[in-house]
Amino acid sequence: MDAVAQNIRCSHCGAPVEFKPGELIATCKYCGFTTVIETGQAFTFDHSLLLNRFDQTQIETPIRDWMRGGFLKPGDLAKKAKLSEKNLVYLPFWVVAVEAKTTYKGIFERITPAIVKEGKLEKEYSWLVLARKASDFPTREYNVPLEGKIPFDFRKIEGFAKVLNSEIDRDYALELAKTQIEAHHRFLLQQDVDKILESKTELNLKQMVYLHAPLWFIKYEYKGNLFQLIIDGATGTALKGDIPSAKFGLL
Questions:
Q1: Is the same domain home to 32 and 72?
Q2: 97 in Cβ contact with 204 (< 8 Å)
Q3: Whole-angstrom Cα distance, residue 35 to residue 166?
Q4: Are residues 156 and 56 in the same domain?
């Protein structure tokens, strides 16, 4: 069950701003003013929005296209699958634009004798951090179309859509991004060395953006079983989907 919603008064228009326990940042659905819940003060960071391109009828086109594509799917999936739920949710993200530099020392064992190698790994990222604590959303597979973002405008959000608030603040999102980038760089270093002896990653933060993005959460029925699919509402791209096997559940 969902946690019981609470509310505070919007300091901009006075309307009730609904939030749930654990959420730290809330946006007024009447005027679009974004508030830090603990203090009631205005949210001072860049708040952006990606626009949804599909209504509840149009979204069926990318859904059926996904069902028809790929050799692993049953040939009659697009024809026989019945859509049982089509929910548009605006998920909150922190987009962390950084320059990341890792200096490392390791042992290269693919030749004899093994040698010690030192070097630097430098990359730029717009690293995506989901601003919800408990979720299996495929963040790393989501190639956010940042070129399409606009300043947050509550008037652009459909009345039937659900807007989720952030459960993590800016500082925690930055720490998460740093931890994830460090782990990613250690993975990349395995292409250059077999054993990592030392590594140190430094981040140069360029910008952080709080972003709401439209995602369609789809449930469909095929041969008596229910499956799920996530579609990016800004591009129509399928991010994650359950694929029925010929006889039983999932591949």
A1: no
A2: no
A3: 11
A4: yes
In a domain, 197, yes or no: yes
Q: Are 49 and 149 in contact (CB under 8 A)?
A: yes
Q: How confident is the model over 26-59, as pLDDT tens digits?
A: 787 777 778 777 665 566 678 899 999 999 999 9
Residue 247 lies in a domain: no
Q: Which residues contact 2 (CB under 8 A, 6 or more apart)?
A: 20
Q: pLDDT tens for residues 135-187?
A: 788 998 898 888 899 999 888 999 999 999 899 989 999 999 999 999 999 99
Q: Count up the domains in the chain and report the number.
A: 2
Q: What are phi and psi of 246, to 5 degrees?
A: -65, -30
Task: Give pTM, 2 decimals.
Answer: 0.83
- Rounded CA-CA distance 128/181 in Å is 10
> Within a domain: residue 67?
yes
